[in-house]
Design brief:
Layout lengths: L11 H8 L6 H9 L8 H12 L2 H6 L2 H5 L6 H23 L7 H12 L6 E7 L5 E9 L9 H11 L3 E7 L9 H15 L4 E8 L5 E2 L7
Parallel strand pairs: 3-4
Antiparallel strand pairs: 1-2, 1-3, 4-5
Helix pairs in contact: 2-3, 6-7, 8-9
Length: 224
């Protein structure tokens, strides 16, 4: 049965308009994104099959282009659309953070860093460069490494902080394994960066490790 033949209050689009997006299941949200099904299957049917294939909505969103486009009913155009939607969400979170002192909104900072870094298949080291009011000047990836490590050079970080006129910085990197516990190497690198930046009066306010669950904060561990 086509979705247009369903009762109006059960159709995903009408349901969203009437009750809000939170009322929809993962399959219904995905069906709205897909817009159409395939021969013999509605968009909701196809969405359910895709969720079974990938295991979860998050896994589908995190899939590589090759993995995503290999699924029946998907393709490069859908992949591009999905990446655009994801990036818009990240930029909205970043825009919210830029409007305030990031230290006043630690939960918002964590949400943004998780959305930015959590599902990467390689380790990415990034920084939030801040002004004297602890508002974000820019958020930048400083290095992309292998599955296990990323190379970060303190001299280059200092140069970038000076170029931006930054007064402080928050570092973050992901652990593709999903285990957010900081390693000894993470702590050593943070100390090197903190010492280098202190020479030019730039404070390191925190370093977050992003994995499954809430990012782990060095500052909350008492390491900064």
């Amino acid at each position: 049965m086509a979705i247009t033949d369903w009762p109006a209050d059960e159709r995903p689009r009408e349901k969203l308009l009437a009750r809000g997006p939170a009322s929809l299941s993962d399959a219904e949200l995905l069906a709205i994104f897909l817009r159409t099904g395939v021969t013999g299957r509605s968009a909701v049917d196809l969405a359910r099959e895709l969720l079974v294939r990938f295991g979860s909505l998050r896994a589908l969103v995190a899939a590589s282009q090759e993995q995503f486009s290999s699924a029946h009913g998907l393709g490069p155009a859908k992949y591009v659309q999905l990446q655009a939607v994801i990036e818009m969400g990240r930029r909205v979170l970043a825009e919210d953070l830029r409007a305030r002192d990031v230290l006043s909104d630690p939960a918002g900072t964590r949400r943004y860093l998780s959305a930015w870094l959590r599902d990467r298949d390689r380790e990415v080291f990034a920084a939030l460069f801040l002004d004297s009011q602890h508002r974000i000047l820019t958020a930048e990836e400083l290095s992309q490494g292998t599955l296990d490590a990323a190379s970060v050079y303190p001299r280059e970080v200092v140069k970038r902080a000076l170029a931006l006129g930054a007064a402080a910085v928050i570092f973050a990197h992901n652990h593709p394994s999903g285990v957010a516990e900081p390693s000894a190497a993470d702590r050593l690198l943070t100390d090197r960066l903190r010492q280098a930046l202190a020479l030019v009066d730039v404070r390191v306010l925190d370093h977050f490790v992003v994995g499954e669950g809430a990012p782990v904060s060095f500052a909350e561990r008492g390491w900064l």
